[in-house]
């Protein structure tokens, strides 16, 4: 049954498609559902009543828990408001590990504190025996001078050459800001965010299931990291875009025996346990305290996968065509919205 869905994005309603997935059959489930914020999706209406939205969410969250293996993890991305309800539900059916705060400006903008993070709930199916890896990311540096951003004082000798362990606050991954770098989709995730979650919870060959696949970010990340994937997506246009991107994706985000996440020709995330194998591919400052002003460097730049220069966000030239049409549509809708607001204001002033 599973084979039919393996390494494909299947068009359809995830609640229907989940019925075909056996219990305890996939290693990780990740969901980035519609946030009920009236987003302009191509076919899905993102505005349900409060309780209707939560009831619907409980259905697919239950399915995520059901299909996840006993060693596996359940990850859900959303704004904090909805995550508080998800957590109450998940606490009854799985085991809380972390609330990952992904530092990025979000909606809705309130009149009190400005929302500045998305959350990713990280649960495991069982309390013990779950597959979880420690990760490392590169040291943060001053962009102009290149010095370490944090003052480690007299402790620089003790620094890890690659960088610190990843915590539950992620400040080094940015939302896709430029339309030229995104697909015609209102809320595509940055692919190296998915890389990090996949490295955190899986091994080579493991299966990652995403019931709200969008334009295939999870699938592409899984494929380039040598994992298998199952994607569900309601909108056939997003499925088409994903398929085209997947055709161009190679399973090559690897140095030696270790899978790593690249972004803009830099390695962004590694598994801590892989450093022993990876270190021989780097020029490491000696003495190590010089890391304060010397980055470690890959000895051979040819180790960087070639296609990432032309295909950084998984976007192909073909999609530029799609993008231009979609962004024109979005601009037209936005212009219309502004015109309505302006008219309403004028009417209010006149009254
Ligand atoms: C927040 S987006 C996911 C974006 C995705 N993470 C990416 O990076 O491209 C949510 C997606 O869920 C899809 N969707 C909405 N309802 C669905 C359903 N019942 N079954 C499957 N997909 C659905 C929407 O079409 C939309 O593409």
Write up this protein:
- By secondary structure, the chain is an alpha/beta fold.
- The chain folds into 2 domains: 2-315, Vaccinia Virus protein VP39 (Rossmann fold); 318-351.
- The protein is built from 8 helices and 15 strands.
- The chain has helices at residues 14-18, 50-67, 80-93, 191-201, 217-224, 236-247, 275-278, 317-350; strands spanning 8-11, 26-31, 68-78, 95-103, 117-124, 135-136, 169-170, 207-210, 228-233, 254-255, 258-259, 261-263, 266-271, 282-283, 297-298.
- Strands 1-9-8-2-3-5-4-7 form an 8-stranded mixed sheet, with helices on both faces. The protein has a 3-stranded antiparallel sheet with strand order 6-13-12. Strands 10-11 form a two-stranded antiparallel sheet.
- Helix 4 crosses helix 5.
- The longest helix is centred in the C-terminal third of the chain and has 34 residues, at 317-350.
- Residues 317-345 have low confidence and may be disordered.
- The structure holds S-adenosylmethionine.
Instruction: Going across the biggest sheet, name each strand in turn.
Output: 1-9-8-2-3-5-4-7
N-to-C SSE series? Answer: EHEHEHEEEEHEHEHEEEEHEEH
N- to C-terminal distance? 64 Å
CATH class call of the largest domain: Alpha Beta
The CATH superfamily of the largest domain bears the name Vaccinia Virus protein VP39
Mean pLDDT: 87
What is the SS-derived class?
A: alpha/beta
How many separate domains make up the residues?
Answer: 2
CATH topology of the largest domain: Rossmann fold
Output the number of helix runs: 8
| Small-molecule binders | S-adenosylmethionine
Radius of gyration based on Cα positions: 22 Å
Q: How would you describe the shape?
A: globular
Strand residues, percent: 15-25%
Low-confidence runs: 317-345
Largest sheet: 8 strands, mixed
Number of strands: 15
Fraction of helical residues: 25-40%
CATH architecture of the largest domain: 3-Layer(aba) Sandwich
